[in-house]
Amino acid sequence: MVRFMIRRLLAAIPVLWIIVTATFFLMRLAPGGPFDKERRVSPEVEANLRTKYCLDCPLWQQYLTYLGPLNLNPGQGGVKAFGGDGSRPWSGILTGDFGPSFKYANRSVGSIIAEGFPVSIHLGGMALLFAIIMGMVPGLVAALRQNTAWDYGSMSAAMLGVSIPNFVLGPLLVLVFSLTLYWLPPARWDGPRYWILPTITLGAIYAAYIARLTRGGMLEVVRQDFVRTARAKGLPESLILWRHTLRGGLLPVISFLGPATARLLTGSIVVEKIFLVPGLGRYFIDGAINRDYTLVLGVVLFYSSMLIMLNLVVDILYGFLDPRVTYD
Amino acid sequence: MKENDQPILSVRDLRVSFATEEGLVRAVDGVSFDVRRGQILGIVGESGSGKSVTNLAIMGLIPMPPGRIDGGRVLFCGKEILGVPEAEKRKLRGDRISMIFQDPMTSLNPFLRISLQLTEVLELHKRISRKKARRHAIAMLDLVGIPDAAERIDDYPHQFSGGMRQRVMIAMSLLCEPELLIADEPTTALDVTIQAQILELLKKIRDELGTSIVFITHDLGVVAGICDETLVMYAGKILEKGSTRSLFASPSQPYTRGLLRSVPRLDLGRKEELTPIRGNPPYLLDRSPGCPFLPRCDFAVDKCGEEFPPRRQVAKNHDVWCWVEMEGSAG
After folding, report:
1. Probe site for chain B from A145, A226, A228 (most B CB atoms < 10 A)
2. How much is the ipTM here?
C-alpha cells in the first residue's frame, strides 16, 4: 500500500512537468502580454517592466528560471521575476515559489492561491455535500422503488439536471429567488444566506449524475446471486441493503466522486464568476485574460496537483471498499 | 401415522406463473411431491422445466411481481408455509430450510469476509454472540473439508477456489442445522472431480446430520449417484416419479427414456450411439390441454393432445404420467 502510494506520487512528477511545460509555452503562444492595456504606458516604462520581470530574456531562460534549475544573475541580487531571491543556486517552483503576479503588483501567486483557495474549497465542499445528499438519497429510493412514480420523477429530474449547464442554471436561480421572490441575495459571499445559490448552482449537475449512478449501481447489485443468497439466509431486507448491497452499489459513485471532488473544489470558475465569489476560479479567469503568466501557471499547477491527489485518494478508498482490488 | 413418518416437506398441486411481455408463463403447473426425513430427493429436468422455480417457491424467494403463486400448498413439517407472512418465512429460511445455489462464484458476497457471511446466519437465527458464532462457523468449515478453517475464515470469497467456495456455501447453509436443504444444481459450475467430492460431502451430511435434501440437477449421472427418489419434470409438470433404482431400471415415460438414452453410459457397448431427444424445449406460452412433451414424443397417441394423463403406478413407489404403456427397458 505504501509502495503503491509512493509509486503513484513519483509518477505524478513527470505528469506535472508536462503540464507546466505545455502551459508555459501555450501561454506565450497566445497573442498579447501582461503589460498590454487599453491605457498605454510609455515605452520606457514598459521596457523597465519587461526587464524587471525578465521578459526580455530568451524564452528558454525564462522557462528554466521558472522551473528552477537556472537562476538568472544570481550574483546581482537575482531576478525575482520567477521566484527565488538569488541567494540560492536555483529558484522557481522547485523552491515552492510560484513567483510574483504580473498583474497584482507586490503580490505573490502563492499568496493569491492561499487567499482564494479556502473560499473555493468552502464553496466546493458545500456543493459536494449537496450533490452527495441530493444524489444518493433519491437515487437509492429510485432503485428500491423501481418503476414507480418516484423512480420516474427523480430520474427525469436527474436527466434535466445533467442537461442544464451551470451558466444557465445560475442566472435562472438568481432570476427566480433573488430578483423575483427576493428570498436570497444574488451575489457575493458574505454569509450563509449568500452561500445557498452558488452551492446549488455548482452542485446540481453532480447531484444529478450521482443520482443516476446510485440507481444504476444499486439495480446492478440487487440482481446479483449473492443478494438472493442473503435472502435465502433469512436476513431482513434492511440488513441486506446495508450490509450486502450498498457497498457494491455505491462503487460507481465512489469512482465518480474522485474526479468530481477535484472539479468541485477547483472547478467552480464559472460559478464564482456568476456570483462574484472571491475564490480561486476568479483569479484563474482574470489571470488568463490579463496574460498574467505566473498566476495562470501557478493555478494550473495547483489544480493539477489537487486532481492527482484526489484520484489517488479514490483509488485507495476503492481498495477499502472492494477487497478484490489489490495494490501491486 | 407416527411423528417420524410425516414427510418433512409436502408440496401439493403447486402452480406458479410469471407475467412476461408475451403473456403468462406457467412455470410450475400442478406439482405434488413429498420429501421424507433423511431422504435425498432428486429433481431432474432441462432448463425451463420449472425445477428451480418449484424450490424458489418453497423458499418464498419468487420475485413478485412478475411471479405469482396461482395455487397449491406447501407443508413444512405439516405446517402450511406458502401463504404465511414474510417475517415468519424469514424465520424458516436459513434456519430450518436452507438453500445452496448453482454458481459458488457469484453466490457469496465478494465484498464481505466469509466470517461475517457465516456468522450473520447464526446471530440472526440462534441469537448467539459473534464470538460463539465464529467458533461454530470454524467447526462447520472444518466439517465440510476446508483446510486451516480457523485461518481461512477471515478470507474473502475471491481467495477461495470454486470447489472451496461451494464448500463455504454448504457450510453456511448447514450452520443452523436445517431439517431441509435445497441444493439447486450445486455441482453444475464445478469440474468433475470437485463435483464428486461435493456429492460425497452432501451424502455425508445426510448420513451424519440427518438433513433431508432436495437435489435439483439436469445431470442424470449425479441423480443416480446420490438420490433415493427422483422426479422428472418437464414444462412445469412432473412426468415420472419413483425410487431412483426403479426409475433408472424401467423408465416408463418416453421423456425419461429419451433422457437416459442421451447420456453416455459405461455399461453399454462402445458402438452404442447417443440418441438426442428430437425437437426443441417446450414453449411455455401456448399451452395445449394435453401432455407438454407431445410435440417431441415418438410414441404419442391421439389422446395425448386432448388431456394430461392421470397418475399411473408402474411399480411400488414408481408413478408415471403417460397415456402410453411402455414395454421393455430403456436399452
Report:
1. A226
2. 0.83
